Amino acid sequence: MRTVGEILIESRNKKKLTLDQVERETKIRKKILQLLEEGNWDTLSPTYTKGLLKNYVAYLGLEQRKILAFFRREYDERKETTVVKRLDKLQPRFRFTPASVTVVLIAGLVAAVVLYLFFQYRSFTAAPRLEIQEPADNIKISSLEVNVVGKTWSDAILKINGEKVQISPGGSFSVAVSLKEGVNKLTITSANRFGKINTKTRTIIVEPPKKPIAGASEKKNVLHLQLKVPTKSVFLEVAVDGKTVFQGLMLVGSSKNFEGRERIKIVTENAGATLVKIGDKEFVLGKEGERVEREFTHND
After folding, report:
1. What pLDDT, in 10s, does the model give residues 43-84?
2. SS3 state of residue 12
3. pTM of the model
């Protein structure tokens, strides 16, 4: 998988921009730009880095949500690696002898057995850790989409409103969730293999701003498509004119509108719960539980 730095460099090179040009137009120092492209997060605070990335990504015309999700994953995994390396450096060095090797082996075996029994006991009796970093509870937003970001055990089963979510090897997760106007309740659960569950809830109130009605000239030759999820939350991916504009979970009762010049492609993990409206036609994409990919053009 490409890193954030590789994506930034590739996008800048495609636009034939030098770091000096970017520095003049974004007011971000060239040295900082180099750190961002090298993925050197250690010299900058996470909050400061996130703000700089937002500005740089917006300048390059990249998808901000996707790049920030990559950054969070890289930062979390690198932080864990750094902690392990520091612990290794603190390990005392000693001279190996047959007696010391025997003692170490026996101690290691005993420790492994104790740890195994401890983790088995913890797995059986305790629910997995579950931290939700974003969004906060009981917030009001104007967007019909929110990122759910957090961390749990890497071997846990994570679900949002009953739909399974992929977890990174380090246990972190970040997923876009499509909302409906009004009150939305997210139920995030993390379960172990023995059925112990940790649950967090988030209530989000969506009050979208009123959009001006576009004139007829603005709507000419535009492909309009509406997605609805009337019966069950479902994971969807939508690409407009070849560019992915949404990839995440649509909650039951929510809907999203898309506009394109040539084509709109939909990939759904549950076609029977995905309702499409295009022009005067409204229909379900397929059967319940069926994964479907379909592209729509002006001819549909």
Report:
1. 777 777 778 888 888 888 888 888 888 778 877 776 666 544
2. helix
3. 0.53
CA distance 9 to 7: 6
CA distances from 20 to 27, 28, 30, 238 (A): 10, 10, 7, 36
**CA–CA dist 150, 198 (Å, integer):** 13
Q: What is the pLDDT of residue 275?
A: 93
Question: CA nearest 4: which of 82, 68, 80?
Answer: 68
pLDDT digits (tens, 9 = 90+) for 188-215: 999 988 888 999 999 999 987 776 555 5
For residues 81, 70, 146, 11, the Cα torsion angle rounded to the nearest 10 degrees is 160
**Mean pLDDT value of segment 103-131:** 79
63's tokens: 């998808």
Helices and strands counted in the chain (H then E): 7, 16
Helix (H/G/I), strand (E/B), else coil: 229: coil
Strand boundaries in the chain, DSSP class E = 130-134, 139-141, 145-152, 157-160, 163-165, 172-178, 182-191, 197-206, 223-228, 234-240, 243-250, 255-260, 263-268, 275-278, 281-284, 292-297
